[in-house]
Amino acid sequence: MPVREIMRHLFHTVCLFFLIIVFSPPGAASAAGTTPATLLVTDSLASPNQTAMVEARLMSRGPAPTGLGGEPLELLVYGKVVATAVTGEDGTARLPFTPKAQGVIPVQVRVGESMRVAPTEGLGHLAIWERRNPIVAVELAALMAAPQAKPAASDARSKPEPEGTPLPDAADELGKLTQFYYRVMYVVPSASFGGDRFQASESSREWLKLHKFPTGYVLVVPVGEQAFGTAIDALHADGWKTVKTGIGRTKAFAEAFLQRRLDAVMVPEPAKGEAPRKAKVAKEWKEIRKKL
Fold it and tell me: Where does the record locate the signal sequence feature (predicted)?
């Protein structure tokens, strides 16, 4: 082959390589050969100038997802990295952040520089409330026209979602309650999602956002008849004593409040004999504000 042809071929090869480098998406090279993963984030609750712990779990994808330990995570608030941590053996990490102002703000957790895990991120909420603010606890099932279905077998790529359409007027009426007075805490049993509190938190947020419910704090409680009551006691012990009112669908939820001499409203109207004696009952969400 003539020298001129060799040089021309070499020139074209160099140009092609340069174009690939320039126009490749950021992180494409570093992501090659890495493990795809899912990053789930739970909601956090704190007061202004109090350190909150944002908890996240990094899991491999596939039929049998497992926690990915030893991986760097970054916490971002309004696009700025405010904390870093390394995942433990189960893929969980806690990232501290001290908020200044009140509100419910979105937080983002992402995988840092990793040779093993592909770039991924998860989203959550940080509820920053004054401890004197009145808080209404709402059982997620009380917002739905049908009970939540149990999810199918777990695969991190197919997330179990809350099923059921919202009860009529639920989003509007809850919006009116939270517009000027109450802060809203959504209470979700993790049993509805195979016992995974991280998945329960994310799926509940997505359902609430889809159906235009006011943004609040999603609290996931474990399996067990005493779970609701234990959660109330923990909140009160931590200084959140303004959790005095519960709006729920199940008898167990209402009883947890009544046993602590707190107010409980059941909606929609339960079957005869299902409502505890001192529980208030609303046939529909339009009656809720009259019961509080």
Answer: 1-31
CATH of 37-128, one of 3.40.50.12780, 2.60.40.10, 3.40.50.2000, 3.40.50.1100: 2.60.40.10
Q: How far apart are CA 238 and CA 131, in angstroms?
A: 10
Give, in words, the CATH class of 135-291. alpha beta
Find all residues with CB under 8 Å of 54, minimum gap 6, and list them.
Answer: 41, 42, 44, 75, 83, 94, 95, 96, 97, 107, 109, 124, 126
pLDDT tens, position by position, for the chain (292 residues)?
Answer: 554 554 455 445 444 444 433 343 444 434 456 889 999 999 999 999 999 999 999 999 988 889 999 999 999 999 999 999 999 999 999 999 999 999 999 999 999 999 999 999 999 999 999 999 999 999 999 999 865 545 554 444 445 455 679 999 999 999 999 998 999 999 999 887 767 899 999 999 999 999 999 999 999 999 877 999 999 999 999 999 999 999 999 999 999 999 999 999 999 999 888 899 999 999 999 999 999 9
